[in-house]
């Protein structure tokens, strides 16, 4: 049963910037659903439309059966939201923070008391209820913020980049809490992230989003299978950009049309070659390149990853986009012009 339905959902900001561009998807009850993409891809804008903080420009979306534009109050009663920045008062105790949210949702005192106790145990903060939040670690604050989004027992909880800024160990622990939350309480979780491993580890289904468009959607296994075979990465013995471009151009020209090559994509100073069977393709590939006088510094074979999936469908890696995130408005305008041509 779907608890979120989006059809042609679109958000256009001033300057004709399409932050979200006619996307369609659904989220099932009890499912962990992830939006995977770089900063500026449209992830947070989508969440804000779904939890009624932003009005869509066009398209429709329903959450827990209610239209986000027509029944915003009903939607808010049924969702929880943990934003990128932790929304807690560090000058109050954990109990005071959680109780305040309970009063926001007009829960009675007895219900608040019971849920505060249960939630502190759920997020492994029992014993810290009456300590000032200013004494909490970053991971503890994230877990308290998660608990605050659950105080009213929502049907859906939105987690916007929940582990950004956390160290790897704390991030892994928070993944456990999120997974247990979905499995034990049956709440649907809509997660946004730019961490490949996070989406891979947590999500039942993943939507890869780029420049406001969903470019691929499925389980992690389905997305990787869509590439097929192995990924052979060729790194040239050059450093300058013009030498790298020449290497990629020559290599693509030489390998184009070879029966063992399914597709080729430039990737972070290298060339990714998608093949059916890497172990049999590499000897032939090296013989052909050597015969054409093309030197290769390193060659590696790997199974497809979500990074490879992102590269295939967008032509870039998330790391590449992270490095140019200040230019996303310009990138979107260029993409919009190309689509309208």
Strand content: 25-35%
Which fold name fills CATH's third level, the topology of the largest domain? Answer: Rossmann fold
Taking the sheet with the most strands, its summary is:
6 strands, mixed
- How far from one another are the termini? 39 Å
Strand order of the largest sheet: 6-7-8-3-9-10
| H/E element sequence | EEEHEEHEHHHEHEHEEHEHEEHEHHH
Overall geometry comes to elongated
Low-confidence stretches: 323-331
Q: Counting H and I runs of at least 4 residues, what is the number of helices?
A: 13
Share of residues in helices? 40-55%
CATH superfamily of the largest domain: P-loop containing nucleotide triphosphate hydrolases
Average predicted local confidence, pLDDT: 87
Rounded to an integer in angstroms, the radius of gyration calculated over CA atoms is: 23 Å
Commentary on this structure:
The chain has 13 helices and 14 strands. It is an alpha/beta fold and 341 residues long. It has a six-stranded mixed β-sheet, sandwiched between helices. Strand 9 and strand 10 form a beta hairpin.
List the helices and strands and how they pair.
Elements: E1 2-13, E2 17-28, E3 32-36, H1 43-50, E4 58-63, E5 66-67, H2 72-77, E6 79-82, H3 94-104, H4 109-122, H5 138-148, E7 156-160, H6 168-185, E8 188-193, H7 196-202, E9 205-210, E10 213-218, H8 220-225, E11 230-235, H9 241-255, E12 261-266, E13 271-275, H10 278-291, E14 298-302, H11 306-314, H12 318-322, H13 328-340
Parallel strand pairs: 3-8, 3-9, 6-7, 7-8
Antiparallel strand pairs: 1-2, 1-4, 4-5, 9-10, 11-13, 11-14, 12-13
């Amino acid at each position: 049963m779907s608890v979120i339905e989006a059809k042609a959902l679109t958000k256009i900001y001033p300057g004709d910037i399409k932050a979200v561009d006619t996307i369609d998807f659904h989220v099932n009850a009890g499912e962990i659903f992830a939006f995977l993409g770089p900063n500026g891809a449209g992830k947070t804008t989508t969440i804000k439309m779904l939890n009624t903080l932003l009005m869509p420009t066009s398209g429709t979306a329903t959450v827990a059966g209610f239209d986000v534009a027509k029944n915003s109050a009903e939607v808010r009663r049924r969702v929880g939201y943990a934003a990128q920045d932790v929304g807690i008062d560090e000058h109050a105790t954990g109990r005071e923070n959680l109780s305040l949210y309970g009063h926001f949702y007009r829960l009675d005192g007895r219900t608040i008391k019971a849920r505060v106790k249960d939630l502190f145990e759920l997020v492994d903060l029992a014993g810290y209820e009456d300590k000032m939040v200013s004494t909490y670690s970053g991971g503890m604050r994230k877990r308290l913020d998660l608990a605050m989004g659950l105080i009213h027992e929502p049907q859906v909880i939105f987690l916007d980049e929940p582990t950004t800024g956390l160290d790897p160990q704390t991030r892994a622990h928070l993944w456990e809490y999120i997974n247990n939350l979905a499995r034990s309480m049956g709440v649907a979780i809509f997660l946004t992230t730019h961490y490949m491993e996070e989406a891979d580890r947590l999500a039942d289904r993943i939507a890869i989003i780029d420049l406001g468009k969903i470019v691929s959607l499925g389980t992690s296994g389905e997305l990787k299978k869509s590439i097929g075979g192995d990924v052979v990465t060729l790194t040239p013995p050059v450093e300058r950009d013009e030498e790298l471009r020449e290497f990629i151009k020559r290599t693509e020209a030489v390998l184009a049309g070879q029966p063992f090559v399914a597709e080729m994509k430039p990737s972070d100073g290298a060339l990714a070659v998608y093949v059916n069977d890497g172990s049999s393709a590499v000897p032939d590939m090296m013989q052909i390149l050597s015969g054409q006088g093309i030197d290769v510094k390193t060659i590696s074979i790997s199974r497809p990853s979500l990074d490879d999936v992102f590269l295939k469908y967008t032509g870039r890696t998330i790391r590449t986009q992270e490095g140019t995130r200040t230019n996303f408005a310009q990138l979107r305008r260029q993409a919009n012009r190309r689509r309208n041509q």
